[in-house]
Structures are given as structure tokens and as C-alpha cells.
Amino acid sequence: MNPPPLGPSAPSACASPTQAGSLLTAGFLALGTFAIGTEGFMIAPLLPRMAADFGMSVPMVASLVVIFTLVLALSSPISTVLSAAMNRRRVLIAAMTAFTAANLLAACSSSFTGLLVARLLMAVAAGLYTPNASALAGAMVAPGQRGRALAIVSGGMTSPSALGLPLGAVVGHAFGWRATFLAVSAMGAVALAGILLGVPRQAGAHLHVAGLRERMAVIGQPQVQRLLAVTLLWSVGAYAAYPYIAPYLSHVLSFGESRISLTVSLWGAAAAVGVSVGGTLNDRYGSARVVRVSLLLLMLSFWTLAAATALPPPLALGPVLLAVVVWGFSVWAFFPAQMARLIGAGAPAQAPVALSLNTSTLYLGFSLGSAAGAGILGSGAIWGIGLFAGACALVAWLLERRL
Fold first, then answer.
1. Rounded distance, CA 130 to CA 96, Å?
2. What is the pLDDT of residues 360-392, one digit of tens each?
3. Domains along the chain?
4. 195, 197, 215: which is closest to 88 by C-alpha?
5. Major facilitator superfamily (MFS) profile domain location, by residue (predicted)?
6. Buried b / exposed e across 167-206, counting CB within 10 Å, b at 16+?
7. Could you give the CA distance from residue 325 to residue 83 in angstroms, rounded to a whole number?
8. pTM of the shown model
């Protein structure tokens, strides 16, 4: 509840600290979504090394990505509804504790089965944390600040794209893939400390959590359905290619681990610029234009990667590196604009539900895309990954034109 105004001359003086404090709380909550987002991106460049350690094929080890994203997408709405009567702060503490512990378990796993179980636990914990963090952040600010607070928390899931992939490559290649899980567990511990110290004890004690009927009401809106369909197609294409960047670079450019790490860092830098510039362009030119241009650039970059497989490594180097930069930039320039459209698609009170549905749709697409990419890679037609990913971006663009 907002404090009463102090008097006619004081509203602006008291509103600013209150809003700033609430947005700071959203920042503490975003520490958790940042840890979760980083974990989801980190192991992609390490799949070949993990496959060698377990004596398995890369497509088989990629099931770690497929299962994590699928379980997160399916469990998130269920666990959120089941925990609706609980204090939100306690739910977030429990979820982040479980997530941190699961990463420690993964770091200590000596078998693929143990690692798979740890990833399942991470997915359930992440699926519980993310929508509850968004709901709490949206409830603790004034209506005029709700979109900004939700963007801060949701951005924690996407901004790690600029860090997770290169960090996973550098740390994993230098110290082994288990070190990546230790790094994420450390992030989880920092996030847990942020919640304990930065989120008021009674925050969200009586917060209303959208039930199944309310969620279905939001899903039933044609505008939301179309936006979620664009998100689904975008995420399927993105994750059809994303987890398999290391085997692609090794096959097409004959890159070893050090050059793969450098290329992945280049992708991460482009993604960081894309996230930042995408938000700025959204404010200046509107979300629809940003989304459409991003999808076209993404399509072209994926099809360039597909075409480059027909070239010898010296000739393929330039087009591949250019495509990697455009891919990294455009794939995340899309996201701030898409979030802005979801926040504005319905009533302000529906924004947390819309973003929660978007998260589930996002990870469902990641699961479908990574499964499709694994199947294409397993067939030996590595050129097909870029072709399929580009086709998904094209269909998303065509659908976007009808919005």
C-alpha cells in the first residue's frame, strides 16, 4: 500500500523515493532471474566436451537443454498456482535455495543421469521463481511504474544471453564444464542474499496470484494469442541454432576450443548491444517496426549460416562471423520490443500474467527448437539447422505483418 501524501507541496518529493525503492526491490528480484537466465545459456558451447566426457553423442547430451526448457515451461504455471496461498517472499527464497542447491548437485554429478536429475530440479525451481518474481515486482510499484519493474525482472532472463554463452565457453573450456554450474550456484547465492536483505519481510504477504481462470482469460484474447505465437516461432528458431554453435563452428570453420570461445564472445557482445539498442529503438520507432526488422535480420543471418556450409573454411570465415554478429544483435533486439507489446496488450493488471505466459511460451519454444536442432544435427545435415531456424523467423515475420 502506498503511503498517504504528506501535503499539497510534497507529492513529488515523496513519490520519487518510494518508486526508486520499489524499483530497487525489482532489481534484487532480477538477480534471481539473471542467475536462472545465465544457467539456461551457459552449457551450449560445452556440449561437445560434455559429450566426450560421458561417451555420448552431442544430440544425446543436448537432451539436457531440451528437458530443462520443457520442464520449466510446463511446470511454471502449475507450481505458481499451487503456491498461490504462500507468502511470495518465502516462495522466492525457497525457489532460489533449491535452484542454487541443484547447481551444486550438477557440479558434483559423476554420471549423466545425476546431471539430468539436477537439471530437472533446476527447471522446477526456475519455473516457480520467475513468475512469482514478476508478480511481486509488479505489485510493489505504482501503476505507472509497473511496466518498468516487470521489464527489469523479465530482462534478467534475457540479458544473460550477453554473458551466459561467452562465460560458459571461457569458464568451461578453462576449468571444465562442472565449473559453470559452480559459477551459477554462486550467482544463486548472491540472488538469495539479495532477496533476504533487499525484499521486505512482508512483501507480497497477501498478493493475489492469477489462477487458471484468469490465465485462460488472458490467453483467450486474440491479440495476446498472436503475440505469443510470434514469441513461440522466434524462440523455436533461436534455439534450433543456439545450442549447436560449437559443433557448427567446428564443422564449418574447423575451429578449436579457443576460437570457438572467441566467436561465442563476439556473439555475446552483439547480443548485449542488441538488448540495449532494441529498447532504445523501441522507444523511438515503436515496437512493431523493431520486431519486424529484427526478425528479417535474424532470418538472413540464419540462412547465411546455412549457405556458408557449402564453402571451404577460408571463404566461409567472413560470412559466418558477420552472420554471428547479426544473429546475436537481432535475436535480442527483438525481445524488449516484444515485452513492451505484451505489457500493453491488455489492462495493466494483466501484464504480470501476460509476461508469465510469455516466459512459458519462450521456454516451450526453446525446448522444441533445441529438439529440432538435435534431430537435424544427428542426421548429419548441419546446414539444415540454419535453414530451419531462418524459416521459423520468416514465418514469425509473416505472422507479425498481420498483427
1. 10
2. 898 899 999 999 999 999 999 999 999 999 999
3. 18-400 (1.20.1250.20)
4. 195
5. 25-403
6. bbbbbbbeeebbbbbbbbbebbbebbebbeebbeeebbee
7. 41
8. 0.80
